[in-house]
Amino acid sequence: MLREIREWLIGPPLPTTSASHERLDKIRALAALSPDALASVAYANQEIFLGLVVAGAAGLTYSWSIAVAIAMLLAIVSLSYSQVINAYPTGGGSYSVAKENLGSTPGLVAAAGLTTSYVLNVAVSLTAGVAAIASAFPSLWPYRITLALLLLLLMTLANLRGLRESGTVMSVPVYLFAGTYLLMIGYGIYIALTQGPASLQATAPPAIEPVTPFLILHTFAAGCTALTGVEAISNGVTIFNPPEAKNANQTMAAMTILMGILFLGTVGLTQYLAVIVLPEKETILSGLTRHTFGSGILYLLIQSATLLVLVVAANTSYVGFPRLASLVAQDGYLPRQLSFLGDRLVFSNGVMLLAGLAGFLIIFFGGNTHLLIPLFAVGAFLAFTMSQAGMVVHWLHNQGSNWLFKSFMNSLGTLVTGAALLIIAVSRFVDGAWIVIFLIPLLVLTFRMIHNHYDDIRQQLTLRGLPPSLTPLPEPRIVLPVSGVHRGVIEALRYARSISDNVTAVFVEIEPGSGEFTRKRWEEWGLDHDAPLVIVPSPYRSVVGPLLDFLDKTDREHNDGQLASVLLPEFVPARWWQTLLHNQTAMALKLALTYRRKKANKIRAIIDIPMHLRK
Amino acid sequence: MLREIREWLIGPPLPTTSASHERLDKIRALAALSPDALASVAYANQEIFLGLVVAGAAGLTYSWSIAVAIAMLLAIVSLSYSQVINAYPTGGGSYSVAKENLGSTPGLVAAAGLTTSYVLNVAVSLTAGVAAIASAFPSLWPYRITLALLLLLLMTLANLRGLRESGTVMSVPVYLFAGTYLLMIGYGIYIALTQGPASLQATAPPAIEPVTPFLILHTFAAGCTALTGVEAISNGVTIFNPPEAKNANQTMAAMTILMGILFLGTVGLTQYLAVIVLPEKETILSGLTRHTFGSGILYLLIQSATLLVLVVAANTSYVGFPRLASLVAQDGYLPRQLSFLGDRLVFSNGVMLLAGLAGFLIIFFGGNTHLLIPLFAVGAFLAFTMSQAGMVVHWLHNQGSNWLFKSFMNSLGTLVTGAALLIIAVSRFVDGAWIVIFLIPLLVLTFRMIHNHYDDIRQQLTLRGLPPSLTPLPEPRIVLPVSGVHRGVIEALRYARSISDNVTAVFVEIEPGSGEFTRKRWEEWGLDHDAPLVIVPSPYRSVVGPLLDFLDKTDREHNDGQLASVLLPEFVPARWWQTLLHNQTAMALKLALTYRRKKANKIRAIIDIPMHLRK
User: How far apart are the first and last CA of chain B?
Assistant: First the structure.
């Protein structure tokens, strides 16, 4: 039954041999690898507006300069990543590049940064997508959290099924987004040219803060989220048709130019046309679209394209995060389950972990993109910096043609992204960046602890020092906890007697008098010939505590070098929901027995006798 | 370790003998039983304002008439419940009264209605409390969900510890709330008398809807949430000092008068002083308080008292819901676990179920009280109506002194609450009442299904028809799944050989070649003398599937009337968090084995051999 639901939701298992490797031409590779970077325009724009609007018209006149600064940063980072593509044509993630060139700790720092930015990318993209559609349909506004969680659920199921970065499917939202926005920018420029600049003084709300250098830096830091996702192409070089490096580099250039146009175009028009919105009712991009196209069908198309491209952008984390987690887990720094391919050839555990973390963020920050943004850029820029620094070391070691120029490009990248990281960390510290700044060292420590644990285990499981043949064990003593006299107990007692002559039944008395009643029935059915029945009182109404005490006592009394085995009669209801109708005493007892440590390092076997109910 | 955290959070276990029954004088009983009813004033007020403000000044002039109608309804319901107190001095909940007098289905309908209203009381009270405090501190507004969930968590922990309806502690918020509001109403009347009425035309926003009969009924229905919680005193008669019925009746009268003053006073003043607020920024009660006292210390005191009394009101569900669930569970209509007293003498399962359901509602409705309200009143008024109808039948059967008058009072109560229920159900259907209207029959069906299941079980477990002595079983065949050659496997093999001479080890090969490697090591260590090793391939990378197939095959081949027992070597890490670092194959296998049904009704034993790791 459960398996049927599972198969319906995520499909039947796939054999290992069906794992294939799709290769894409440049048009489709751009669609597969760029949505994260392109969609960043949506929230980066919003952040620049929110950062400056508090200073009124005087503040908003800085939009263009800030956008140009960020576009220059984008160009430098993009050129630096071209060097990564040249050096690692098999795909160089920040974790691998930093680990290989700088050592394991810098690698783990990059991994920690990437982890936070993958999770935040999902939360930010989904909440921003919901904001885009709720701008068009204001009655959806109060349900933003629920809508974002619903999208998260759908994406998680799709990815557990094994949605590939199928270039063809991705092309629709990506090119729809790029096309409609280019159209809007073109038409916006036409309006701007025919009508001339509008006055921000006339539309902007009154300033509630002065324009200060801090305000500008703070807004610049918020706008830097536009760069998140730029590294995707350098991670995915292997999906390009050969010659991979050349095609990847050309696609990277195309993406950078497209991003630049979308970003500068929308920010520039917003300022030139003096567009203003009420931030608690709609996004600034929605405002710009209404300003150019009115509220008709084109407006709805653009808002839908924005939602779609943001969902696709969130999806890139579903590809990247499980892959990163599996690399880190293979190196022994994360739970090993994260490196197992599920039966749909997907790193299912990584997918579910990502969904859980992103869901938590969405709920905790009330589905509000603006509150999430300060946490976002720190991780991404940390990974940028580590990876660029790693590349500098790479060129110094490996040299090769043009290595001086290449190492200069990556040094520039390191410096610029490092400086941006510093600006982001300082100017957005109190807004929430502090959370990530404390989290990253904590993550690195956790990675190390996990690694140590796996080392310890390996030592404890070795057979070195064991005698060459098995030393035999005596016949087990068996303790059978019973809740009354019924068929399940009879079956359990039969099994117990088939493996041992030493069986004791135990009844924990919670209701006074129930012990005497059970003993009478036990004797009526002649069960005392097969096993004596012991009645144990329970003043605290717990079954587990008195049973554990009884086990300790009987082990002490026998003192025969073994711990009594516990045999548990269990019912298995016919339908899964009926399990909820039964007290999970057997389960609680198993947990307690498994996790209670015995000093002597002896083993207590737990034997389950499941009795299947017919209806 | 886990037990220590648990004890720190909810305290050590308490013996059954320490269960005590606290009795309260009228002053403290009022504080213990009335917060739910009194706090309703906060959100009922808000709902009347939100219902009418869409019709501008013309709409808001109806506030007072609607409030008077609701106050009259309150008086009738309160008088009807006095009859319940007289008839059931041992405490008559709606479930018991309806079940005893009308039969089991009407009883279950009342229980279903109560269930929904208990859960909604928590969600509505907490979100309304957070709105009260966020009105005072606007920066908290975006974190309303997180704050409400935090309060929910704290209350759940306090109730798992076993917070009693301790009259003394409850008195502080309840009398602080009543006192400060009476003070505000008194001062408000003074302002009103000295300044005369203010003009709603001057302050109200323009009408966006006309005043229609539907708008008035719709607002009346929303305002009826003021009555939720009125029945609490009639449920809790036993906590009064003797003579219980007389004291309870006097307290009921005092509570009704106090509610009436608070409700009519605040609604009346809001209209007379023409107070208006922006609903997305503050509550109407916050607006009224600012209008009378300004935004100083008295304002903060009143907002804090509102939050506190709403938290205490939410807490009444933590008393009522687990108690109701335990009554219904004792009758076999809900999972039996809900009737077990936990080790802190609290119905812990009921407490956690309530918290889970309320948490879901808070997240789903975005922490927005206004969206939750339409779901609230249906359940409460359904329970009112069933209970009043039950009382009519009670008087007809039992008669006694004054029975004609008493049955008249309860008939009036049935009619009036029934009519209000109809108005609420119809006028708020599309706003969300439909959810509850569909949910209630579904709940009743579920109650019946659960009851049938327990009947079925009883029949299947009976010993009737069993032979008088145990038929012996043959020596078990044992299958030992192994993941490699290590100490855990050696220990498991030793145990297997102590209970059977027929042991087979199975290795599931996921990585090609790992099977041959394991076989070599198996033979190197001479383990093939104790058990042959079988290698099973796994094309889908699953461990569980191939093992289940192997078990079926070996059972078929042996055909000896038994199913092979499965013996599972398991590691138990030294610290609980390390469990997360290990693949839960043994757990998955146990689940699969337990839930896979065998036609022949034979039993497959599952034997766990836990090996405790030292660090």
Answer: 14
Closest CA to A314 of A51, A108, A132: A132
Q: In terms of residues, how long is chain A?
A: 615
The shortest C-alpha distance from A168 to chain B (Å) reads 27
Q: Which residue has the higher pLDDT, A511 or B369?
A: B369
**Each residue's pLDDT tens digit, A321-358:** 988 898 899 899 998 888 877 766 678 889 999 999 99
Distance (Å) from the C-alpha of residue B406 to the closest C-alpha of chain A? 41
Residue B571 to residue A457, Cβ atoms within 8 A: yes
Q: What is the CATH number of domain A24-453?
A: 1.20.1740.10
CATH superfamily of A478-612: HUPs (3.40.50.620)
Dmax (CA) for chain A in angstroms is: 104
Place of tokens 């993941």: B483
Write the residue in B340, B366, B498 that is nearest to A476 by C-beta: B498
Q: How many residues does chain B have?
A: 615
Whether chain A has a CB inside 8 Å of the CB on B500: the answer is yes
Tokens for A544, please give them: 């587990």
Mean pLDDT of all residues in chain A?
Answer: 88
Over the range B112-133, which residues count as b (16 or more CB within 10 Å of their CB) and which as e? bbbbbbbbbbbbbbbbbbbbbb
* Domain-wise residue ranges, chain B: 2-10+23-453, 478-612
Out of A364, A530, A612, whose CB is closest to B470?
A: A530
CA dihedral A209, A215, A218, A220 (to 10 degrees): 120
Which residues 48-87 on chain B approach chain A with CB closer than 8 angstroms? none
Q: What is the pLDDT of residues A105-144, one digit of tens each?
A: 999 999 999 999 999 999 999 999 999 899 888 888 888 8
**3-class DSSP assignment, residue A613:** coil
A-contacting residues in B 435-454 (Cβ below 8 Å): 450, 453-454
Judged against a pLDDT cut of 90, whether residue A48 lies above it is answered with: yes
B contacts of A145 (beta carbons < 8 Å) = 145, 363, 366
**Structure ipTM:** 0.74
Q: Considering only the beta carbons, identify the residue of B17, B494, B595 that sits closest to A572.
A: B595
C-alpha to C-alpha distance for A296 and B59, rounded to whole angstroms: 33
Q: Are A229 and A313 in contact (CB under 8 A)?
A: yes
Q: Are B565 and B605 in contact (CB under 8 A)?
A: yes
Residue type, B338: L
Window 138-177 of A, Cβ < 8 Å to B: 142-146, 149
CATH topology of domain B2-10+23-453: Amino acid/polyamine transporter I (1.20.1740)
Please name the member of A15, A144, A470 whose beta carbon is closest to the beta carbon of B490: A470
Nearest CA in chain A to B465: A487
CA angle B138, B140, B143 (to 5 degrees): 140
Backbone angles phi, psi at A161, to 5 degrees: -60, -30
> What is chain B's percent helix, strand, coil content, to nearest 5?
70, 5, 25
The model's pTM is: 0.76
